[in-house]
Amino acid sequence: MAKASARHILVSSEQECLDLMKRIDEGEDFAALAAEFSSCPSGKQGGALGTFGPGQMVPEFDAAVFGGDVGQVQGPVKTDFGYHLLEVTERTD
User: Fold this and answer.
1) For residue 23, what are the CA distances in angstroms to 17, 53, 75, 85?
2) Structural domain tally of the chain?
3) Residue 93: in which H helix or E strand, if any?
4) Which of 5, 12, 30, 36 has its C-alpha lying 20 to 30 A from 18's C-alpha?
5) Residue 93 — very low, low, confident or very high, per pLDDT cuts 50/70/90?
6) Which residues make Cβ contacts (< 8 Å) with residue 63, sequence separation at least 6?
7) Which domain holds residue 56?
8) What is the pLDDT of residues 38-68, one digit of tens each?
9) DSSP 1
10) Using an 8 Å Cβ cutoff, are 32 and 43 in contact?
11) What is the crossing angle of helices 30-37 and 14-25, to 10°?
12) Are 57 and 65 in contact (CB under 8 A)?
């Protein structure tokens, strides 16, 4: 069964998500930005969500994690929780 490890930054607006993506693209540290801006408790751990399988996260998040490239920041991904930037740190098929 497929498994993935990922980290994310959860914010309330698409614009904030885009602004954070720009900062990451310019070289700022994902984990530091997660700790400062993420509204998810995982922000305290740099946004780390641990390891999970398909179907354990909301569908939009799942699609990005199991369909995107490992090591590439993706987003904004909109869910009922808000807007996410996410990075798959590891995935097995």
Assistant:
1) 10, 29, 13, 12
2) 1
3) none
4) 5
5) confident
6) none
7) 3-92
8) 999 999 999 999 999 999 999 999 999 999 9
9) -
10) no
11) 150
12) yes
DSSP 19-88: HHHHHHHTT--HHHHHHHH--SGGGGGTTEEEEE-TTSS-HHHHHHHHHSPBT-EEEEEEETTEEEEEEE
Element housing 12 (H / E): none
| 92 phi, psi to nearest 5 deg | -120, 150
CB atoms within 10 A of CB 79: 16
- Length of the chain counted residue by residue: 93
CA dist., res. 22 & res. 39, Å (int)? 19
Q: What is the CATH number of the domain that holds 71?
A: 3.10.50.40
